TrEMBL record, chains A, B, C, D:
Keyword Amino-acid biosynthesis applies: yes
Top-rank taxon: Bacteria
Sequence similarity: Belongs to the DapB family.
Binding site for NAD(+): 11-16, 37, 100-102, 126-129
Protein name: 4-hydroxy-tetrahydrodipicolinate reductase
Domain Dihydrodipicolinate reductase C-terminal: 132-265
Main location: cytoplasm
Length: 266, 266, 266, 266
């Protein structure tokens, strides 16, 4: 990688954006060339990230920023309302989008794939950039082919609104694909406390714990004849996504079309 | 302990009774003096337990067996329908009952305590003889005084009928006694899958997993500011009760009255 | 599978052999046709396994037993001193060997592969028939490609002689193949208690715990930026091998040549 | 607690000091009255902590700061070289010291206890303010009285210099006090990889893992007849000490003399 990859970052003053800026500044093979942040416009992107100034002043408009600075990749972790438009803007500028978001429809992804192919560039949209979490999901799906008795336990901070978590549901979907369809447990089992047996998904159960001090944890437990297999992922902080984003930035340079899901790059 | 403690065993051919016979025969400070088993009557108690003959032939009637053999302690793990009568019979013979059972009413225990005191002997009734499980419950109760955010996860074999387990409910009762009364979780939280958040007990949650290959497991998880504390007990087999029964046999020699709960001997 | 697979078992009165007999008798698609056991010769194989009589009387000589009874598969979990000869005998009779053993040399396996191919039958030799343990090893090897910081913790019964366990060393070998070669930990780290940091294998560490009440457990822990991934296998009893042996018996019918390692059938 | 407790903080610009300032400012029953920080002198203590200004300007000298501002409690998490002098200074001003430090000698603690008693105030020195970690140690010590087969596994960040951790050694000391003296494991056991069985402490073993992404974790595992008991504490961040410091500030108001060890307040 003789030449540095030129990276632009949106939401550079937000929680994820600041981590992205930090990660880009710390990797000698990457170069920060533009930063966009509505409320932080005019400030130095390094300072927005809690570091010393880096010389890149945050702009307020992505289109303008990409016109004025030649970028190879745009990293975008902004909110659902603007992320689609940002992705289109990037592709129009020939800039490869690396996007962390969950709300895209299959139709939108197909459209963006078409735009990427026209522009002859790659793109990446991923709901999850955590390498460990993706491995956990892949392993769980594989194990379920052999050990169909399975339960999922996920733990998140106690102010989370929805249960189960998106990762737990995604894991359950992957497990269900290869698992022999059985309804686990005793057919006559009785819940003395309603809900004790968890939420049912396709014949197996998901349990959601909510405790202060926890960022994100998930354990998938398989039970077999005289044995159990457990696959557990603990995420301690938002920064755990950055190694995945870093790999995404580098891999997106090497293919054409829009990839949905970081697991397809592994 | 210069003299051996003389032990009688009921249900000597049953699953727990056989373990008791084995344990008594293996401890040089104990002596098996009588065994009772309706369907195994006439057979050697050692052979019923899968060992070589020990010279004690199983009788069919407890009253008769205790008349013919001087015993210090009766160990009884029989079924609810006969255990109360067996306990009374033992006390009437001046034999200290060590009983594994859950179904006694407070009134029955009080009556048995009176009978023990009249006979000037000790007695022990315990739903749980597992030292590790009792420590888990004691520790969980203590931790809840300092860390009120708690969830219980219990796992049992997949043919178990009731959820949560008796141990989980007992643990929850003990936790509730010293825990600050708070309703955990986000007040606006939403279960996408009904039951995902588990069964509620006094503001905290219990989750029941049912998997083949598991005998009995429980984990109590506490979440605090930047930390979590977990107390976990795994029981691999019925024989895990025997060290507790052994301690019970020895301790019941030293006090008067009926003790309910093995934890009071720890 | 319209016709039953005819199974012969050696060491039918030994610890593993009895489990094999039980498993064969319980599977309607398998038929026990011969049993060999030196010390149990003349007894019914069902009774040797602690079940009711099954009509197959244990023989003392494998060669004779296979001459008198047409078998499809021989399951052999006997001791290193006889297992090679047994395997050759089976192949000479056109009987597919399914062997649980660790001591074969690469040369022996190659020879047996040749014999199988000449006889146009399949064979299977596996040090480990536990599906969960094999999945654990495969997942650990895969994860190490992405998360090179890894430690292995294995726990076995407290009377085990060697540390680390064979499974831990096998896991370490598989991890080392795809893992970036780094020496983990602080180069200046100091052991206040010698051995605290465990045994080193190719730059990472293995820790062996020995505790009563445990059969076999292993956890592989990966640490990354803000996250950790754990893969854990708990084996509760010898019987945990049987689902793997059962699969082995069925799969060995469908290929030619000797397969070494159950993982190649998954 | 009708009146606020007046709190002074040393090292207010350091890693722990900033957390203390934050905690004090967020608790309505506490009032920050003074802050000391050599390199941050002249700056607002709230700003040093990354919050908005709170009106307390950091001073450079503790003696002067305590002369000018009436404080009830001094919280000191500074370095070994100054912490003893700071503690003496506080007591001389009639200010109760709450100190996080490990290096005090028994003689120093006795002297400080004498000074506290002369001044008729309380004081607290604690190597560990983590409530969860202290509960873990207390539970481990108690469990070891009943289950003498035990191993400790501790995990810290991969740049830590010493192994085992101070917490692991402290836990081992507490376990050793009540545990039956046995040397665990098979007397003939053999380490194929030197160090695999961990570091020995009084007949049991300690295992130290070092992985990136981990702050501080410890698990104490007990093995018994057919069961295991695990007590695990995971610390995610430095801020995990603050609930303990908060309790310390409030409890130190109610007694006289120097207490060494937060566990004595639980």
């Amino acid at each position: 990688m003789s030449e540095k990859i030129k990276v632009a970052v949106t939401g550079a003053g937000g929680r994820m954006g600041r981590e992205v800026v930090k990660m880009v500044l710390e990797d000698a093979s990457l170069e920060l060339v533009a930063a966009v942040d509505r409320s932080g416009a005019g400030q130095d992107a390094g300072e927005l990230a809690g570091l010393k100034p880096c010389g890149i002043i945050a702009a307020s408009d992505l289109d303008l920023a990409l016109s004025e600075n030649k970028a190879d990749v745009l990293v975008d972790f902004t909110v659902p309302s603007v992320v689609y438009a940002n992705t289109v803007t990037a592709i129009r500028h020939g800039v490869r989008p690396v996007v962390g978001a969950t709300g895209f429809t299959p139709q939108q992804i197909e459209e963006l794939d078409g735009l990427c192919r026209e522009a002859n560039i790659g793109g990446l949209i991923a709901p999850n950039f955590s390498i460990g979490a993706i491995l956990m999901m892949q392993f769980a799906a594989k194990a379920a082919e052999y050990l169909p008795h399975v339960e999922i336990i996920e733990t998140h901070g106690d102010q989370k609104l929805d249960a189960p978590s998106g990762t737990a549901i995604k894991t359950a979907e992957l497990i269900a694909q290869g698992r022999e369809k059985i309804k686990q447990g005793n057919p006559d089992e009785e819940e003395i406390l309603p809900g004790a047996r968890g939420g049912e998904y396709d014949g197996f159960r998901i349990h959601s714990l909510r405790l202060p001090g926890v960022f994100a944890q998930q354990e998938v437990v398989f039970g077999g004849y005289g044995q159990s297999l457990k696959i557990r992922h603990d995420s301690y902080e938002r920064a755990g996504y950055m190694p995945g984003v870093n790999i995404g930035i580098k891999k997106v340079m090497d293919y054409t079309g829009m990839v949905y899901g970081f697991e397809h790059l592994m």
